[in-house]
Amino acid sequence: MAEFWGKGIELGLKGKQLTEFVESQTRLLAQREERQAQREREERQAQSEERQAQREREERQARREERQAQREEKERQIELKRLELQIKMETKRLELQTEMVRVQNEHEAPRQRDNQQQMLHWPSKLPAFTDGKDQIDTPDFTGEVEAVCLKKPLYDLLIGNIGGARRPDDPDVEWRMGSAQPAAEEEDPLPFASEDISELLRDDRAAVHCRDQPQVVSAVTTRAQAKKDKTTTPLRVTNSSATAVVDRDRLIQLQEADLTLTKYRSRPVKEMTKGEGTVHFEVKAKILYRVFQHARVNGGKPLRQVLVPQPLRRQVMEVAHDSIMGGHLGVKKTSDRIQAAFYWPGLHADVTRFCRSCDICQKTIPRGRVPKVPLQKMPLIDRPFKRVAIDPIGEIKPPSEEGHRWVLTLVDYATRYPEAVPLKKIDTETVAEALVDIFSRIGVPEEILTDLGTQFVSECMEEVNRLLSIRHLTTTAYHPMCNGLVEKFNATLKSTLKKLCSEQPRQWHRYINALLFAYREVPQESTGFSPFELMYGRTVRGPMQILKELWTKDVGTPEVKNSYQYVFELREKLEETLEIARENLRKSQDSGKHYYDRKAVNRKFTPGNKVLILLPTDHNKLLMQWKGPYEVEAVVGINDYKVNVGKKSKIYHANLLKLYVERPPEAVQVAASVEEPAELDEFDGEELLELGDLHKKEGLDDVKLGPDLTEDQQKELHDFMGDFTHRFCDVPGSTSLVEHEVHLTSDVPVRSKPYPIPFQARESLKKDIDNMLKMGVIRESSSPYSSPVVVVKKKDSTNRVCIDFRKVNKITVFDPEPMPTATDLFRQLTGSKIISKIDLSKGYWQIPVSEEDIPKTAFATPDGTYECLRMPFGMVNSGATLKRGMRKMLKGMKNVVYYWDDLLVHTETFAEHLETLRELFSRLTKANLTVRPSKCILGTDNVDFIGYSLEEGQKGLLLENVTKILNAPRPETKKQVRSFLGLAGYYREFIPNFAAITAPLSDMTRKGCPNQILWGPAQEKAYQTVRDLMSRDPVLRLPDTAKEFILRTDASDEGIGAMLMQEHGGKPFPVSYASKKLSGAEKNYSTMEKECLAIVWGIKKFELYLQGVKFVLQTDHKPLTYLNSAKFVNNRIMRWVMYLQNFDMRVESIKGSDNVGADFLS
């Protein structure tokens, strides 16, 4: 500091000037030190990058060596082929030589030709020809030719395409018949016999030619003759045996054997209402028909449809969709075409699956029909020329006067400052020189982004990048959007250049600099500043400023500043400008993403998926078509995937990929059932997405104690419960352990139109709202967010209020909070003899919502808008927040495991058990959490936990499910045999020699065997052996919550079924089975509603496994589409939709014959 004061005094500065000088010098010193520190950091970073670059160079060297080995191998193969070609051509030459010698020997002397045939329509004098040179005289040609005589000539003379010949339609009209000259004598044709083989490689047959060898030429063929001789290529048609094999008797036989049509045959002939039409079934001439009548169908006349048995359904769909007259139309038109003559149960679902799995339809779908994935935000670059985008334009026609055909463009990401250089060619060396020329003006960037052009990814360019310490980034194949900054500038440059050089098109290279000035001078929409301002910190003097000065004569008085002051102020201005530009870029980026994502769909692929890729056609790289299918190998980015394309792998963006739906083979599989008499007409309990009931209804009397406890132990437990009476309450508490946060992908508020609330329900709704306001669960809101409220009836006719958070969930960032695996949970229970089960009372409602996220939970009612202060049901991350709170509360505590809001206390002794209970409830008290008394069991050795039975420290399966499978009825038809083998086949790893054991059964499913099987001793032995082995060995795998669950559901007229599975060894393996008979009311549901009921009931049955995790729902119908699109016409559908919002699932549609297990269970 003293040094600066002395230096200021030496410069003659005083007072304020001296103070400002010292302050500026001090700031300059601080900045210098900061720059020095920055340089040191950059040097360390450069060293790290150099090490990384060295590793990359070593990898590139290895790849080069591999490519060199491949090239050597390819050259060796070419050499082998060349030698093979030499041998073939030498053999051919020798064969021709031999044939010529034979012809020469046969025609040593001239011979007269007999039985001559006329080719010309005019009289001519034809001489006797010999092999060799002959003189001919015809209207088409006169002169000496090399001729050959045939053994059996078709004409006297054939004139081919030889020099001097006239066109067939233009003969010589002045020609007069003359005498032909004698043919020349022939010479020995053998001098070429010793010709070197290397001469054969110069050309084709012309190389095998001797001095006097006859020249063989083709005869002239007219266009009319060629058109007449042209053959018509037959069209490819679908190879279907629907009409070739099946006759009337076969149809009757298949209908009678099909169990899916039995109920229609036995149904009495009476009309049933189907919408606005009527339907009944009848048998006419032994053929089963469905008779449908509607005022707008078939002119109001009855339409008789043949009921198609299962073996023929696929053939009917092939004719209706795949055939040459099917037209590959959509689902609706294909269904309408089939229903004009045929019908079967599940027709629409079968046609939907068939059309969606059509290979041709999938590969010809328009590109716009495949939705794009959401736009990802690029990192904002705040330092000029840290990252630049590069791309070539061309080939430009016409070329410039100096021969330029290309333009290399460069755009800076931070300032949007463009550069453009005209080039005569775009090889690597030329591009590298142009880049070095640009870098000499703007500096060397840290990163460059280019496409996969050979000039950018060549070894020479890699070496340039290494020498200049440039990190090279590339776009994915056929995805120029990744380099959109320079692509957009290229479009502007081409459009403007076309306008400027319209009168002198070959002078376009001279307009580039003027065009760049015009682009740099105007403000950019995304930054709000011109590139010149962000680059130089000032507005450049351009045409507008010059015109203004000429008009006003006002040039302005320049401000006099010293160098230091100018540099210092310029730096501050540049920093402020760049900061404002950065903020403008962020806003522009958010706005662009918002509009782009309106129709985007978050499509994800997993390794092993089959996909189609949008690639250029084989004939035109500008035309794109779907090709494939190919297999996804790995996920390499948010939207980038490595796909195996032929013999190599490439990285493609998700917008170029489309999931390929494979058409499954025809198969029918079923499984045994687990029947439960419970009904699902209404839901009850806190599982629904309701606002809640905060009145206390349960107490200590509802807590269950173990039946084997002694009186002293029971007394100690009662004393323990008395000490924590306030914890045993069904009214939820409020903890401070964790807060529920809602992170959204968009800042645009989500608003939904409120659903109409019935007038009779508004009073109870208002009462519930008032109670929750008093309890502090909700509060009045002025939030811009708004989710609708639905009021549904419970079993007791009271109303339940539910909030529909579907739109908020769609833009919520998924919380990846890990879930404990079942293996870890059960491992900790080893050796435990006493277990207590504790269940939190409405665990969700005991967690508050983060203050800044409370507005996102707002919901609208007829009396106003409110927002949740406690974590509501229905938000996608509610379960993860609850799990995080449980983890914090139980951190470091032994002998306690938890799964969501279920806790197990497990010990070996009662004293230790009681001590652990007290520690647990002390923590519950500290966290202000309550437990539900009716769901608590204390001091027992037998509890159900996560769907398993725990008894005396041992884990066992729910054997009643296995018993149902073992007690399944003996198969009587081919369909039932396939179903039994399909189900047992999942357990083949537990059954030695499974294929040999089941061979008598699998033989009965062959084509040609009767549908009604002939059961014999061999089949009975195989059936009993499989059942016996299954009963002795475990047949259900323990659930691994680290893997994805698969839920299959199905419904029939009599019941619904569900099967929970996981993949082991690449195959789905059953975890648990469940089924339920339909009640009388449920049997009246439509087919689609029954399918929806099966899904909801199956998810509710296995909720412990599926809550809070992603899982796959496989069903042989599309009921979720119905749930999402149907109007809320009844309370039942509303409850189902609200309930499913708690779960994160992916739906897969499978054919009914592939729905192993669930169909059997239903």
Helix content: 25-40%
CATH top level of the largest domain is Alpha Beta
Low-pLDDT residue intervals, each spanning 5 or more residues: 108-129, 179-220, 667-694, 986-990, 1157-1162
Question: Biggest sheet: strands, sense, closure?
Answer: 5 strands, mixed
Structural category: alpha+beta
Q: Give the count of helical stretches.
A: 34
Shape verdict: globular
CATH superfamily of the largest domain: HIV Type 1 Reverse Transcriptase, subunit A, domain 1
State the end-to-end CA separation: 89 Å
Give the strand tally: 35
Going across the major beta sheet, what is the strand order? 3-4-5-6-7
Mean pLDDT: 77
> If you consult CATH, what is the topology of the largest domain?
HIV Type 1 Reverse Transcriptase, Chain A, domain 1
Rg over CA atoms = 43 Å
Domains (count): 6
CATH architecture descriptor of the largest domain: Roll
Beta-strand share of residues: 15-25%
